[in-house]
Specification:
Length: about 800
Amino acid sequence: MTTQPPQQSKQSNDSLLLALATGLAQADSQDAMFQLVAAYTRANIVAERASICLLDGYAGQTFSVVSLAGTAVTIPHGTTFPLQDSLINKVVSARQPRIWRLSEQTELDARALLENGVVAAFNTPILCADQVYGTINIGYLDYPDESDSPSHELLTSLAELLGSQLARIKANEQLEREVASNKRHIGKLERLHELETELARATNLDGVIRTLSKTVADLIGAKRVSFAKLGPNPGESTVFGIHGMKGLAAGTVIATGDHTSTETKQTKDLPKAELDEVRLRYTPDHRTSDNPIHQKLLASGVMSSMNLGIFVHEQVIGTLNVGSASVDGISAADQALALALASFMSSTMQRLDTQAELMFAAHHDHLTGLVRRTLFDSYLDLAIQVAVAEQRTVEQGPIAALCFIDVDRFKLVNDLEGHVAGDELLRDIGARIERSIGSAGTPSRLGADEFIALLHPDTAANHQAICREVTAAIADVPFISNGRAFSSSVSIGLSFLTELSASGAEALASAEAACHTSKLLGGNRVSIESMDDESQAVRRTAASWITRIKEALRYDEFVLYAQPIRPLSDQGTASVEVLIRLAGPNGSIIPPDRFIPIAEQYGLIGNIDTWVATNALDAMRKAMDQQDAGGPDAPECMFINLSVNSISSEGFFEELLEVVDQSRVPTNRIVFEITETGTMHNFELALEFVNRMRVLGPRFALDDFGVGLSSLGYLRRLGVDFLKIDGSLVKDIGRDPIKSTMVAAIKSMADALDIRTIAEHIETDEDLAVLRTIGVDNVQGYFVGHPAPIERTLQLAPVEANVVVPLNQPTSAHVAAPLRAT
Ligand code: C2E
Ligand code: CA
Ligand code: CA
């Protein structure tokens, strides 16, 4: 597969989608809209080629191609095809999205795509009210698999959104033509433009009605204007007042009689005469009508009226009604204006509808319809904030709870019955979970066959009861697939949100652990997180570490150490690796192993890494200035550790780049260390980070190398500059022939890839001697130089005059040796 899901976070996807909808509603030309759609497509739907085919509005015999993305293999922008006998025509006539295997198609456009290497195509119609404007298309160089269906859904919604906005532009153009031919209407044109802009800002039906009420009297001479929205029951409409409501009060529910036949039908299925009737029905004299509504209007002095259909996704949703005080009181010009108002209203209503659908799709899992993680996480965070603020405990409830639900032996179903049955099962399980929980909480789909649910504050016993209902709802009634019945069950883990809950991630981990217990006990049961003293203590410790780390960041209580990395040749200047510590009570120093893992788990590591980079590069700059002024040599390079969690978090790249820029340290003297294991787990993200950063100058070292899983292929793709051979392979290498063979193998692999090697944790001269025979490039370890406060290793002049640094007494391991070899 070459089409990949976008790497963006859900959050930014949502805001992009909203920005697109708003942008489209405000764009004032077709081209401006296409540009917006193109930008969105390029950023969010990774496709080999994407285009819009636009039907020729005049002759109706051709369509032309507007390219959106992937121009390299596209049919050129602007190419015109005959509509007859084309794939596009099929999609346009069917008014349905289609996916084609092009080798099986004979149409002209299909053949043109095949010649360009496109083997499959997805087309979805752009339509609004009863008009089709064209299609949005995606071309594939490989056959897409099912995982593309979410992006196809997205494209279909996008096409609907675009349709509604093209309808708006067309209605506007039509009006301008009419008004231009009739100078008297010039003031109305201005009002109409205002109306259009205001409608673009409307976020619901009330807003639409309010906007229309402000403008309508300036546009058409009418006694009353209303909107009759179909519903609440079939055959009924509800009246919304827009202007001078004589006759039928707003809020009245009326029987719509003749509209019942149209409300469920698509416009394309309606006979032409009936469609015309829905679009515009003019009754010039109510006295001659036997329609009860007309009679009612007549009684309050409304003599003639006009009803205009409002359409969303080709379906009638109601009528815009204009009534006049005189017989045949609505002039041809006013009819034209009212028709324009109705199109504006249709396109706005369709935009609102599609927007709501898109937001729903963005927040809901497409298989089960349950809310997605992003939305769920925000609910969870909120529940935790409440639990902490109100100091809830299990004993002193009510408490919210998190349940982790895992389908037992799901893989088996998937393997034996196939993916389709597997999907069906998940959909069914999702529905049963939702039904069992009801208003007691919010379920969400976590991963393939895992669900989570946030349960509203209640007693622990009630939470357990709900979980047992879930297990029963799933285990007691068999599932049906392909006419065969089979049983399934789930394992559930329950954790409570209390004053000790540190984060959503932690609550989830406890619930997952409890679920694991359920699995171990044979599945189809509920287990509760362990509440023993030990796990409580762990929570307490984690919580207090988080506070401590945040304080240390705020008050600069971290301390930097640096350890030399020397060229084995003993020639040239040493580099240093920067290592963080935390200032503890009474001058003690807390090592990173105590707080880095917690910082990684609770999302604080990015801040730490930025803090380290800022302060380390600042020290480097000082060392370089000092050297320029005739002082000791600054390190050749500065090695800075980055956590893989940092480099895969949004915005970290930009932040780090800013730090590098601000420091004025030449980028070729900066090396970032990332661990081999972390990198392999997040390979694509790490690769992107390394690629983007390396072109700007900084280099990369793969840390703790040799204990992870990387293969030659990965190493070649990643393109790092240094391998740091893990200490466990180096320690005692002088006495362990297996280790020396391994290190020698790493060395020759690195040579083949033109990567420099660094052996770490060298503690004895014996080990150093073996490494010398193997020929590693650089060495680091207690034997070569201990980590020491960075000012000391870099021999920086103390900031405070009363601090004495024993520069020329190399008695302690913590005293810096000069970085330049003598
Ligand atoms: P690391 O990157 O592998 O760092 C090398 C560790 O080995 C350091 O431990 C260092 O003090 C220790 N070491 C150096 N020479 C020898 C030796 O000869 N023998 C032995 N046994 N150990 C030696 P430290 O400073 O406790 O750091 C532990 C880990 O914490 C680091 O492992 C690194 O993964 C992480 N860390 C340290 N500073 C940072 C930082 O600024 N950011 C991030 N993300 N992680 C950091
Ligand atoms: Ca390191
Ligand atoms: Ca290391």
